[in-house]
């Protein structure tokens, strides 16, 4: 019996250790807006969700939290124009914070993209296009690379915005220059490992994804006028598809599943579905329409249904993934969707979190939670981790119990 108890304890410890390695960055583990949680509430209390803690001194910004094991990372701008990285424990206690450099004070001032944590290092990009690498424990700057002044990148209208993508020993950055358009930096030293001129477009506001299912694993991203597949080994362009947003925005990461790549953008651009050849070296258009069309709020997929917002029509839309046909649409304030445990969470521009069932017949909202703290736009994407939903609204970060 004693041996059995010891074995069970060992299993529990091993399980806890495995959980401690869990890492969440932009839009979940695969940048698809899906959080692999179980046992979450299917309906919230009428009195509202329990707020476990909140912190109200992040500074200006729209970035979501990143989580690595038992630590939460989020950046903001305060003290004039200084970017600060904050690290919290799971109870909301500030473990460390550091001023990493200058942040953006122009249009929609504040920190942009979320940070990425990998192998004990934290990566982030400022609005001025400076890539930083910091030690995850000490927050000491290990290296930084100025994409504009060192690599000839181009500043864009609403400031540079990209969540770093780590692929093997590389971290990927979009400088948007005519020569150094997309670059791979050594993740430990910041040295340039390769660079590609791609199509010479300026950068979009897109955070790239990494696809491994095809013969040539690849980085898929947007620049201002193109969707691109890039070989992570040498930077060669595997394929390119022209697709323009009239304001060069393209702020949503592409959504990939089973050889299909769905892209969506705002400014009346709409959505595009591409089929990636098994070789990984070519794409063909499957469908294109203007039914899901949003500037920043992303899309999510469950089964054969894809959900997203239409900015122009102020509608939340359900489409058939394979055909692009509209299944339903409903009037709604602009909303960021994520999925967890079979339910959809919608963070609206009017400051509500809606809990809904991803239904093939209608937008079935079962619960609502008002966000009462913070200021400015409700643009940051929520994050769910270990039964807790993290919502950032300007200076404020809130943790709600959803399990």
Account of the protein in words:
The chain has 403 residues and is mainly β. It has a domain at 62-203: Lipocalin (Beta Barrel), CATH 2.40.128.630. Helix content is 5%, strand content 45%. It has one helix at 2-20, and strands at 23-24, 34-35, 51-55, 66-68, 71-78, 82-88, 94-102, 116-118, 121-125, 130-135, 141-146, 165-167, 170-174, 182-186, 192-196, 209-211, 218-223, 226-230, 237-242, 255-257, 260-265, 270-276, 283-289, 299-302, 305-310, 315-320, 326-331, 335-340, 343-348, 352-358, 363-370, 383-385, 388-393, 396-401. A five-stranded antiparallel sheet has the order 1-4-5-6-7, with no helix packed on it. It is globular, with a radius of gyration of 21 Å. It starts with a helix and ends with a strand.
Q: In CATH's first tier, which class of the domain at 62-203 applies?
A: Mainly Beta
Q: Estimate percent helicity.
A: under 10%
Mean model confidence by pLDDT: 94
Largest sheet, spatial ordering of strands: 1-4-5-6-7
Summary keywords:
Lipocalin; mainly beta; globular; five-stranded mixed β-sheet; 45% strand; 403 residues; five-stranded antiparallel β-sheet
């Amino acid at each position: 019996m004693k041996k059995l108890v010891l074995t069970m304890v060992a299993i529990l410890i091993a399980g806890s250790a495995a959980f401690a390695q869990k890492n969440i960055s932009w839009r979940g583990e695969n940048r698809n807006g899906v959080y692999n949680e179980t046992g979450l509430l299917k309906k919230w209390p009428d009195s509202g969700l329990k707020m476990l803690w909140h912190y109200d001194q992040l500074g200006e910004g729209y970035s979501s939290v990143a989580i690595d094991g038992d630590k939460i990372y989020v950046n903001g701008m305060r003290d004039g124009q200084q970017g600060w990285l904050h690290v919290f424990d799971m109870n909301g206690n500030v473990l460390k914070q550091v001023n990493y450099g200058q942040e953006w004070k122009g249009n929609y001032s504040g920190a942009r993209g979320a940070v990425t944590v990998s192998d004990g290092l934290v990566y982030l990009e400022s609005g001025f296009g400076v890539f930083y690498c910091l030690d995850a424990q000490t927050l000491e700057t290990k290296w930084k690379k100025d994409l504009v002044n060192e690599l000839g990148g181009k500043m864009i209208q609403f400031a540079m915005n990209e969540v770093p993508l780590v692929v093997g020993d590389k971290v990927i950055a979009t400088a948007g220059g005519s020569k150094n358009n997309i670059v791979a930096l050594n993740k430990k030293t910041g040295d340039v490992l390769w660079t590609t001129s791609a199509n010479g477009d300026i950068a979009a506001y897109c955070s790239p994804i990494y696809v491994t299912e095809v013969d040539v694993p690849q980085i898929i991203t947007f620049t201002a006028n193109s969707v691109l597949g890039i070989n992570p080994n040498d930077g060669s362009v595997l394929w390119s598809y022209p697709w323009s947003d009239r304001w060069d925005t393209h702020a949503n990461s592409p959504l990939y599943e089973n050889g299909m790549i769905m892209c969506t953008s705002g400014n009346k651009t709409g959505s595009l579905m591409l089929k990636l050849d098994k070789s990984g070296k070519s794409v063909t258009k499957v469908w294109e329409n203007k039914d899901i069309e949003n500037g920043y709020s992303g899309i999510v997929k469950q089964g054969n249904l894809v959900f997203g917002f239409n900015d122009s029509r102020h509608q939340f839309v359900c489409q058939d993934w394979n055909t692009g046909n509209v299944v339903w649409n409903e009037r709604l304030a602009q909303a960021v969707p994520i999925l967890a445990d079979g339910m959809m969470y919608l963070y609206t521009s009017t400051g509500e979190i809606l809990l809904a069932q991803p239904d093939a017949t209608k937008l079935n909202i079962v619960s609502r939670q008002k966000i009462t703290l913070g200021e400015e736009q409700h643009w940051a994407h929520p994050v769910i981790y270990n039964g807790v939903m993290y919502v950032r609204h300007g200076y404020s970060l809130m943790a709600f119990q959803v399990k």
